[in-house]
# Entry
Amino acid sequence: MHKIVMPGKWTLPGGGLHVSDYVNTPPSTSSNQWYGALGNSIRREIQEEVGLIIGKTELLTDLTFIRPDGVPVICFSYYAPYVSGEVKLDEDSVDFKWVTLEEARSHDLIDGIWGEIAEVDKILKSK
# Structure
């Protein structure tokens, strides 16, 4: 549960892309372009926010909205396997829970998250 972004609602860890997520790594092309910056960003955010190491990220979907201050936002939702670590929340979060898909339904989630969790559950069960 995050205390700053949509306080009192359950959400998933995430955040923004930083230039350091790619510029300090070798470029993927001779034109100084980088593949995989979003995956690097989400791995960094997960480690910073909850102390976990995750594996290869897979894109689930994207979402756009306009903030109350008029700034447009695009969110990319990813899923990835757990690799290691124990949950240690950063200063912006107040609680965490490991729940099943059905248990997640009973939590006061931010809009749209339950559908994303359900979609990942469906994908993982089909593999």
Notes: The chain has a mean pLDDT of 92. The helical segments are 37-50, 101-105, 113-126.
